[in-house]
Amino acid sequence: MKTDNTAPKGLEDVIIGSSTLTLIDGHAGTLSYRGYDISDLAENATFEETSYLLLYGDLPNVQELRELRQNLSDEREIPPQLVELLRGFPNDASPMDILRTSISALSIYDPDLHDYSPEAMLRRAIRILSKTTTMIAAYERIRNGTDVIPPRADLDHASNFLYMMRGDAPEPAVARIFDKCLVLHADHELNASTFAARVTASTLSDVYSAVTSAIGALKGPLHGGANEAVMEMLEEIKVPEKVEAYLKKAFSEKKRVMGFGHRVYKTIDPRAIILRALSKELATKNGGKEWFRISYKLEEIMRTEKKLSPNVDFYAASVYHMLGIPTYLFTPIFAASRVTGWTAHIMEQYTDNRLIRPRADYVGHHPRKYIPLAQRK
Ligand code: CMC
After folding, report:
1. pLDDT beyond 70 at 1
2. At what angle do helices 289-301 and 312-322 cross, to 10 degrees?
3. What pTM was computed for the model?
4. Is 321 a catalytic residue?
């Protein structure tokens, strides 16, 4: 029975609570974290400063940033039992499945899991943020049959992440591009994974359970999984000359083109503009011209034919690819950044909690009488 207060399908435009974290203006195509425009942050702030901003509410001063860096660095090691767990997984598993399982397992080793004080919550957020990179990198090394590389205390968060995955410290220019990508992915209001995290937190379950829920939601191709699907599409297209034919076929088969469209943005996603510039820059420097040209052609045709603009996942794909990152790590890297936003939202949820428990509009059978098994047709 339809009632007047039934929410729109997919909760489109439904405001379910207040937040001081992130503001999106879908019509203007703007995004800000705690009042700072995303382009200002991407241009000027490091991921560490951005994390501090999201977790503590303001940009850090020199001393506060130093302390955050130290805390992140102190938390990089993961328990040896977890490394053993990672070694036991098959080499061809989905790194997102591995990450979901490892975050869940990490809770068992948290020294103060049941301390919900604000100080313990912040410690835990930093712990999860730091160890997420180590777990992703360790599994990447294990799946390739190479040694797990211990973290380096002298490197910043982004450089150390790349170092643990690859075995050598990145060039400063590469590290800065990767760091910018992390800034761009750090938070995005009540996207599906953040909502999942807040729903779990609203039952007063623990942070690891909430982050595990979020990772499960992020994995899907309509959300974070889209960046991997974009790269698969670019590889299938191969050359810019084949873009038109590819899209014609996709349109006739009514297929979704990954990396386009957004629930909130009615114009281009501001993060896509920044990533498009990075993709172009890398294409010129690193000889990946074709990836940028294919992407740009896709963008042009999608805009004229479907009035759809790229979202964050679209140009992130060619950027990561040109940074030499394997496609199966794109979504885990998204998670490694978004964990900052998830934990900031979880803390906000705990601060002013009420159980999130909506209703369903029942459209099933009218009342029926139980029929004993032997009498059923
Ligand atoms: N390709 C083709 N058609 C599309 C696409 C697309 N990527 N996105 C939307 N449409 C069409 C859709 O078919 C529908 O047309 P019609 O009204 O004729 O049936 C119309 O646009 C509205 O689509 P919708 O599914 O009702 O829109 P939504 O707000 O529910 O979905 C979305 C948003 C992001 C799931 C969707 O645009 C999509 O599937 N995009 C591709 C996957 C993707 O790139 N996801 C990443 C999202 S942003 C970053 C992140 O969360 O990771």
Report:
1. no
2. 170
3. 0.96
4. no
